[in-house]
Amino acid sequence: MTQTWRYPLPWQLGQWQQLQQRWQQQRFPHALLLAGEHGLGQLGFAHTLAQTILCQSVNKNTNAEQAWLACGTCQACQWVKAGSHSDYSLLQPEETGKAIKVDQVRACATFLRQTSQQGGYRVVVIEPAEAMNRAAANALLKCLEEPGAATLLMLVTYQPNSLIATIRSRCQTLKFAAPRSDIAQEWLQAQLQHDEAVTAVDAKQLLNITHHAPLAALEFARSDRLQAYQRLLDDLCELLAGTMDACTLAEKWHKDNLAFFIDCLQMCLIDLIRYTNALFLQYNQPQAIQRLLQSLGPRHNVHTLFALWQQLLDAKRLLNSATNPNTQLLLEGLLIGLLK
């Protein structure tokens, strides 16, 4: 499906205007930390910012109020779109779900120290930044301590607290939060209308499930993730009812997509915490999650729920590490935590 939207997205305009002002005042930071939950468009924002900085047209009109956005047509913009711009590098794990390694970060540092081939900035985006192992993070820290002239390093993170404090302190943080319900629903509905296969999907329900992260909701609609999420909720209800044991459920789900399973557990856990604190949002939930909330809510206090949340974060860090954990055992531990 062809993308029908442009960055910055409606809920990103404040961050974009802040950076535009810094650019025009010639006080642009050398390192940015784009922090927020999955599904809010931080990577697309970073890519568009890189294209804008490298654009041959926009750099000639930096004082014009409306000029600070890539033209999309110059040679530099075409190179960025094709992924072949000599002064732009995107650093991600070599395999999905794996760690970003120290050699990758060292190559990034070498790239930033080189002279720009186009006579402007050199830009690197690292995503997700929390996927760096300890050695990679330390290598990046050296790069942040001695930034070169006309360089920009952007770290996209969905778990900012997983980054070492010394890295966070050397970056200017831009926080991305879920948009207001009306903005998210209007944007999502506009995207769904361009796809005949998903026009019957309830935009409000998708946003409720993904906690108002519009791109995550759109990903759910355009894939089988919504159906998988509903199957997972049914399985969890069976687990709590005692008709399925933790080992059987772990064996079933670890073979598919453990990262997706953990994401779904986090979605459920957010609702459970709200429910336990009498902050539960009054919106229409699928029947399965209503049963799950009813089963778990009275049995769990805030302390046990936050302990389980920490287990989920630890599991994500293990998945992003280079240690190749036993995913079935990891999942069994999480499920047993639900039953305690």
Structure summarized in a few sentences:
This protein is an alpha/beta fold. The chain is built from 15 helices and 5 strands. The chain has a 5-stranded parallel beta sheet, sandwiched between helices.
Structure description:
The protein is α/β, with parallel strands linked by helices. It folds into 2 domains: 10-176, Rossmann fold; 224-339, Zinc Finger, Delta Prime, domain 3. The chain has 15 helices and 5 strands. The protein has helices at residues 13-24, 42-54, 75-82, 102-113, 134-145, 165-169, 181-192, 203-209, 214-221, 225-241, 246-254, 258-276, 287-296, 302-320, 327-339, and strands spanning 31-36, 88-91, 122-126, 151-157, 172-176. Strands 2-3-4-1-5 form a 5-stranded parallel β-sheet, with helices on both faces. The longest helix has 19 residues, at 258-276. The mean pLDDT is 84.
Search tags:
15 helices, 340 residues, 52% helix, alpha/beta, Rossmann fold, Zinc Finger, Delta Prime, domain 3, 2 domains
Beta percentage is: 5-15%
Helix count equals: 15
Q: In sequence order, what are the helices and strands, one letter per element?
A: HEHHEHEHEHEHHHHHHHHH
The secondary-structure class comes to alpha/beta
Give me the side-by-side strand order of the main sheet: 2-3-4-1-5
CATH superfamily caption of the largest domain? P-loop containing nucleotide triphosphate hydrolases
Give the helix level as a range of percent: 40-55%
Low-pLDDT regions: none
How far the N terminus sits from the C terminus, by CA atoms, comes to 43 Å
The CATH architecture classification of the largest domain is 3-Layer(aba) Sandwich
